Amino acid sequence: MVDLVFSIQSNQLRFKTNAFYHADILKLIKHPYLQSIVSEEEQQRIAELETWIINRNQIFITLEGILKAKKSTIRETDLLYQLLKQLRDSWNADWKKATDCLKAMSAFIFRELEKDAAFEKASLEAFYKSIIAFENLDLSELQDISIKSFRHLFDRQWMTEAVAYHGNPIDGLQITGLLETRGLDFQNIYCLGLNEGKLPPTNPIQTLIPMDLRQFHNMPTPREKQGIFGHHFYRLLHYCDRLFITYSNADSPMAMYEPSRYVLQLEKELTRDNKQLILSERIYSLENESEPEPVSVEKNQVVLTRLDQLMSLSVSASMLRAYINCPLDFYYKYVLDFGEAQEIEEELESATFGTLIHETLEELYQPYARFYKENPTDKNSKLLERTPQPITSLVLDQLIKNYPVVLESRFVKFFNTDKNNFKKGHNYLAYEMAKDLTGRFLKNERKFVMALQEPMTIEYLEFKMELETTLPVNGEDKKIRFVGYADRIDKIGDRYRIIDYKSGKVNETDVRFMSAKEDVPKSYRNRKFLIQLTQYVWMFKEIFKDNQADVDAGIYSFLDAEAQLHGLNAGKLDLDEIVSEFPNEIAALLEEIYDVGTPFTHTFAYHSFCKYCE
After folding, report:
1. Residue pLDDT, tens place only, 340-394
2. Could you name the CATH architecture of 179-273?
3. CB crowding 493-527: b at 16 or more within 10 Å, else e
4. Any idea where the domains of the chain sit in the sequence?
5. Which CATH class is domain 306-613?
6. H/E segment holding residue 384
7. Which of 72, 557, 476 is nearest to 61 (CA)?
């Protein structure tokens, strides 16, 4: 908690703001102290606040912003709000204000803790007393020091505090140190970890007085202290029948694992003087951990039932690719539905980078599309139809002129801030790259349109294709619901094109089938985008059966200098035949997924959700 308070203050100085840094807020709301004092109702509101911060990518949060947040129901009477209010004000090198803040925080938590939190209350009480002791020092000369130096001095004060254990002597097990045993006798003693440096301690005296000076003035030295420890250790043995001693003799360059001198004295001296003493020594070695066995998950009825549910809800190309890449990754991601933790992005990640370009192009082309969303911000919004305007060079000239403003607005919306906050560092480079790639795409699109002999119109943008069918799987008909999102569907003359945008690299081999017909299943497994593009063409033809027009599918890579379409390429094979056979290929893949004798196992490659195996 002390680390968190100093982190809040340091980040306010670092970013020159009075707002809370998102990492500090998220740590605070999960802190055990806060979680132990808030009610279940407030915990629900705190969870909503956390979701609001992450979904809006809020890097900095103010108290006013928390109260005004639409999906956050935090109230001024909530304990979280009251605690944040105490921690908000900057200390500004006013160390009296700093100690007052720390006292107020500890007193606040102390008051709100339940009566049975005795240990936590004792810790807070000791911490509070250490702050008062620190305040009693002369802090007038500390005005010019940094918060880091103040933290160092403060830690030296309070980290030396100890919390005493109190208990009833007749109530169960009592915890005592070696010095507390001087009036007690035991028949059986277990002395664990008896290594040199631990008993006796190597330097039990913390002092600024040199040892020679202490010895001259008859002051205690480490020799006397070690003698006291030796006396108490041997006194314990007076009535002892059995003594068990353990120590570590692991190899270490610092020689920190030698047995204690007491062990050697018992072995060399006591056995010589006491002939009745029986001494036995046993050596135990811990073997190195063996290589972990490959993780695999067997399929039982519960898993099969979950697969039925999964297939009837949504089967996407990315899901099928996940199984092809790594069955265990598919199991964690889709069968168990383990999601990736959503985090705040201070620096733009590659997936978000591509999404912002996608959204920019969708907004630019939206006014020219035949089918447009009634609510543009809703992915599942109702589609309305109009007569589309052909995409001409004049239209693209206007888009090239407008795209910087649209792209900038997308970045502003994502970072939930003004444009100046992402125009520096890594995010500035990402913004400039996005601007360059989007502009290059539109200019190449203009060249493409000018070379066309027929008009081009936009039919759909971010179109959700859904198709429900039944496929035979291991002798049983399974209900399968295919789902796919096409970034863009346009029409040139009478030919449709289903287009997917990619911000990564795309090679021609990624979209080309192998030459032999029997290698089609192998192509789906080894070629990156074939299963996605084939599924899109098949679904489009099935959904629009009355429309007998030809359909192409391909991928635009923004990284290509010419931004050319990497179209689905059947090579020497018949593409229409491949598309019509697609359901049978998927049925064969589903038979493998449902096969009880084929467990979910790792492939050699590491995939995102396989971390759950660790």
Report:
1. 666 666 566 777 888 899 999 999 999 999 998 877 767 667 888 899 999 999 9
2. 2-Layer Sandwich (3.30)
3. eeebbbbbbbbeebeeebbbbbeeeeebeebbeeb
4. 2-158, 179-273, 306-613
5. alpha beta
6. strand 383-385
7. 72
